[in-house]
Amino acid sequence: MAITAEILRTYRAPRDVMRRLLGSLPGDDRPEARALVFLLLGCFIVFVSQVPGILAFDMPAEDAPPAEAVLGITFFIWLFVWPLLFYLLAALSHLAARMFGGRGSFTRARVALFWTVLAVSPIMLLRAIVEALIGPGAQLTVVDGLVALAFCAVWAISLIEAETPASDE
Predict the structure, then answer these.
(1) Is residue 86 in a domain?
(2) I need a labelling partner for 109 at 20 to 30 A (CA). Which of 15, 28, 97, 146 fits?
């Protein structure tokens, strides 16, 4: 199934999507590569969502870096630093889940988090549109809350699915 269809389906049935993704791991010859693609694609979409805000922001100081430099730094952070932090967060979430009886694996926890990043990234594009068209205010705060809620909900559901053994195990 196309990845865009799976992202849309995640908003209707996140547990089913995660179950299907996790079910395809044993037959995949490189499950880590697929998870990494989810993460990098999600981080790239989040970076793209921040470009209009960076370009529209006027630096108040005279010695402020040019917008191109800020874009380069933001690109580096989203494509190199955040992925490392997400790997750490996935490992910590797996260890925390193990303390509460989770029986998944580090790979399954990574897939749950990395898919969440990719699934929520389109909402970041919506946030960019609201920020560019309306600017700061109540609407942007609502969209920020929607992003946070969607991320927490999808990740929690995905992590629970990743840490729960399949019925045939």
Answers:
(1) yes
(2) 146
What range defines the domain where residue 128 resides?
31-57+64-163
Instruction: Say whether pTM exceeds 0.70.
Output: yes
DSSP per-residue string spanning the chain:
--HHHHHHHHHH-HHHHHHHHHHTTTT-S-HHHHHHHHHHHHHHHHHHHHHHHHHHPPP-STTPPPHHHHHHHHHHIIIIIHHHHHHHHHHHHHHHHHHTT----HHHHHHHHHHHHHHHHHHHHHHHHHHHHT-SSHHHHHHHHHHHHHHHHHHHHHHHHHHSPPTT-
Count of domains for the chain = 1
24 in a structural domain: no
